[in-house]
Amino acid sequence: MSVRVVRAEFTKLRSVPSTAWSLATAVVLVVAFAAMYSTLRVTRPPADPAAFDATAVALAGVSLAQIAVGVLGVLLVTGEYATGLIRTSVTAVPTRLPLLWGKSVAFGLVTAAVAVPAVVGAFFVGQSVLRREHLDVAFGAPGVARAVLGGALYLVGVGLLGLALGALLRNTAGAVSALFGMLFALQMVAGMLPESISDDINKYLPAPAGLAVTYVDHDRYSLGPWAGFGVFCLYVGVLLGLAAWRLRRRDV
Amino acid sequence: MPPPAPLTRGRGPGTVEHMIQVRGLTKRYGGKAAVDDLTFTVRPGVVTGFLGPNGAGKSTTMRLILGLEGATSGTATVNGRPYREHTAPLREAGALLEARAVHPGRSAFHHLLALAQTAGIGTERVHEIIDAVGLRDVARKPAKRFSLGMSQRLGIATALLGDPRTIILDEPLNGLDTEGIRWVRQLLRDLAAEGRTVFVSSHLMSEMALTAERLVVIGRGKLIADTGTAEFIARAARNVARVRTSEPERLAALLTGPDVEVQSNDGALSVAGLTTDQIGVIAARAQITLWELAAERASLEDAFMDLTRDAVEYSAGGAR
């Protein structure tokens, strides 16, 4: 039953141009930004090469690509509400919840399939540029592979976050605002607090927590890679749960 | 236009369980009842029209039947159980709720394919139904380029995709040209003749008079009539004769009887309750000169408006 719904959701995903455009934008942002930022760092080499993080430079585009992926996640759901297609979908799957799970699985797999090559490509593009000043790092160095693939994991998580917010709020403008609020505004609000408090709060906010998995080393300003990603998954899971509750209980 | 292809994969005649049963169905938004204690049954084998002015609660009732909305009280069952409890819902009931409910960037083919996949229906059936509704040439074009008529055809394809025993269509004739309307009418009759339960809404009495054998009429969410179309028309439409004469007052005084009603306007008389033959005889006996004597059938639309007038939510005159 649910496998059928995943297939159907996959068909829906691949049959609208906006999916390809959004994901292509995400790939271009990740790879192009790696090339640009690496070039910039090569022309202005760091004072202390030992403290230079070549992986972070190559993954800088992930923070931009998350916008494209997150907004696509929102649109996948709110588009159905805006057109009324949701009623046809629910007529076909009256138990409703398989629709949300099917969409999450299909979108998660598609995002992963695009994001993994993108971050790996960005890493190698970045290192090939940094090599000129011997600032590059090997993929096999401790923590590097995890950080690079973590960038893809984070993008999948942001996509599902957008999907959950879309299903919860059923409205494109509201869900996109909520997504940006969670990913960007919360840090700004935390930044206004006294430094001693904001440093402790900040690392538990969705974006800093989720991005911890993309850092090779972590310091007192960030959680450990998997602890941070776990906190991020908790946010996504809670919102998906709320979305499921609303889908199940409310009229469509 | 549409090449000959099977719309349905003929099933046996419907049994008594193949019907829509609505019992005491009520839906309130805030304190306001959109659907108010509706009880009716839609049986297989005939086209049942669901008639009412815009805003009467037809679409809400259909969404309640399909489990898209939860009822405040009462029940609605499709083929013996609430729609949400069916394990193969697309084979039990197919619905067209909004013709434009398609992603504008998605093609008709992929729209139907995704729906088919949720029910394990194969690609051949998708092609078959696309041919049957006459959309073969445009099936790969994005739906935003569809006219309303093409969207209605796609909506009908959506409803028939699972070869369902019960078909629920909300205003399927909207936006169709004459040929399209004829096609839908014939299609509905054919589906009913195969023993399916066919429930079709419209706000136009004249459309339903030609399409449906039975009528469920509602206004302001309440049931007004649940009857055969012929009976409904006979009861609602009264025959009126138009008479012009040199002596309207004298003739009016002679036209009496239990159900006779005479109205005078611009020197002509409108007479209800007497045939033109009877009026002619009365006038001849009194030696009154008639200039004109003609039967006027009250239009179905007028009769429908009369019946639902009290039940119309928003009338053109403003607040009631």
TrEMBL record, chain A:
TM annotation in the entry: 20-37, 57-79, 100-124, 144-168, 175-193, 226-245
Alphabetical UniProt keywords: Membrane, Transmembrane, Transmembrane helix
Domain of life: Bacteria
Name of this chain's protein: ABC transporter permease
Native source organism of the sequence: Virgisporangium aliadipatigenens
TrEMBL record, chain B:
The keyword Nucleotidyltransferase is annotated on this UniProt entry: no
A GO term for molecular function: ATP hydrolysis activity
Domain ABC transporter intervals: 20-245
Keyword Cell wall biogenesis/degradation on entry: no
Domain of life of the source: Bacteria
One Pfam match: ABC_tran
PROSITE patterns cross-referenced by the UniProt entry: ABC_TRANSPORTER_1, ABC_TRANSPORTER_2
Keywords: ATP-binding, Nucleotide-binding, Transport
Family listed: Belongs to the ABC transporter superfamily.
Protein name per UniProt: Multidrug ABC transporter ATP-binding protein
Species, as recorded: Virgisporangium aliadipatigenens
